[in-house]
Amino acid sequence: MFRHLRRGAGFYQNLFKLAFPLILQNLITTSLGFVDTFMVGLLGSSELSAVTAANTPIFLVQVIIFGLLSGQSVLVSQYWGKGDQGAINRCSGVALYFGLSITALVALTLLLFPRGVMSLVTDNALLVELGAPYVRIVGVSYVFNAASSVYIGMQRSTENPLMGMVVFAISMLLNTFLNYVFIFGKLGAPALGVTGAALATLLSRIAEFAIVAVYALRDRRVPLQPKLLLRPGTVIARDFFKYASPVLLNESLWGLGVSVLTAIMGHMAISAEILAAHAIMGNIEKFSTVACFGVAGATSVIVGKRIGEDASKEEVYSLGCCLLEVSLLVGLAVAVCLAALLPTVFIPHVFPLFHLEGLSQEIAAVMCAILALMMPAKAFDITNITGLLRAGGDARMASVIDLGCQWGIAVSLSFLTALVLNAPVAVVCFAIQSENFCKMPWGIVRLRSRKWINSVTRGGTDL
């Protein structure tokens, strides 16, 4: 075990160079998201639960964007290895058209039918009333976010993750400041409460898009080629959808699965308490996985580039094993930290800060303990599915593993335990995280087969 960790000089330096900006970016985003949750929580537990429920359809939009970027990365990282900047522009053009179409459709739906969408998540009339204005405004923000994310994803896949880190840091800092202004009515602004949180998100996303647009027009490292970006061509579009559509479908159905899990909690007899606990633990889980997703993002770039450079299958396999071993060690370290922080920081300090008391606090503690138990396997799965298999052009099998375990195990067991058997909360929380028992062994079998290593690029004359 861990025999693949011995690498050549400079390998881990390069891994750190790619992973650290992604980790820092995720950490900044998650930290400020935690502050957002805290600000909304100061309004009351009902407002916090309403925003948690309202963010369920928004989360689905986020995972669609993430899936789109993951699919884009499959092609862009391999074309980067070949040095084909024209193909990189074409791939980004397809991603841009698709991302704007999806987010515009979702924004229109949320704008016209906010209460109908909220009613799908929870049957609590108060939460629906509080959350409806939030989803109407915040849905529009993701049209701007989709455009900026496509460009940032292209830069990340060409070994420039620092750019995205800086842009998202500025955006999130602005979002937090505007939350303070509009939620509580500071600096002469009206106190808009939950609606103010949505307005802050919209304005920060517009600023994010403006920064990206200015950077894109001035960048010479991977210069924009408007003719190829706006008219990517049918050949690259077919390739994009061949390799990206399984990823996009995967993330969409995975996000739907997470939304269904939230909806299951929203229909329990203790819906307000478990949703409040889930809101806090959702942020803690994001903190816990920032390093995992950083390693996964770096894995995607490193492996994709080596495949694009025509490395042998055995070299790519050994490289993949090394990166998975790194992710497993990261997961173990995070699990130890969670186990130590639960009794010393979370229960005595963090949970009371967010007004989690009684049953809500008990549920949050159970969720945290189960998360710590699952972290090593979760870290392995994140790198294997979102980093390694997709970078190798094996997006279909990555989707089968991811969705098969989520829907076949986690969603089914959660529905059964929560709404049919009325099982204890600990059993329900365990069911929500149960997919990791299946993903890791299945992923190892696929890894060892070497069937995931595929070149997905074309020569310049074929485009």
Count of DSSP-assigned helices: 15
State the end-to-end distance. Answer: 43 Å
The assigned structural class equals mainly alpha
Poorly predicted sequence stretches spanning 5 or more consecutive residues:
none
Helix content: over 70%
Series of secondary-structure elements, N-terminal to C-terminal: HHHHHHHHHHHHHHH
Query: What is the CA-atom radius of gyration, in angstroms?
Result: 22 Å
**Based on CA inertia axes, which overall geometry fits?**
globular
The number of distinct β-strands equals: 0
Mean pLDDT, to the nearest integer, reads: 87
Largest sheet: none
Residue share in β-strands? under 5%
Number of domains: 1
Could you explain the architecture of this structure?
This protein is mainly alpha-helical. The protein has one domain (10-455). The chain is built from 15 helices and no strands. The chain has helices spanning 11-41, 45-82, 85-112, 114-121, 125-157, 161-184, 194-218, 226-230, 234-266, 271-308, 313-353, 359-391, 395-420, 425-432, 436-449. Helix 5 (125-157) packs parallel to helix 7, helix 11 (313-353) packs antiparallel against helix 12 (359-391) and helix 12 packs parallel to helix 14. The chain starts with 10 loop residues before the first helix and ends in a 14-residue tail after the last helix. The relative contact order is 0.13. The mean pLDDT is 87.
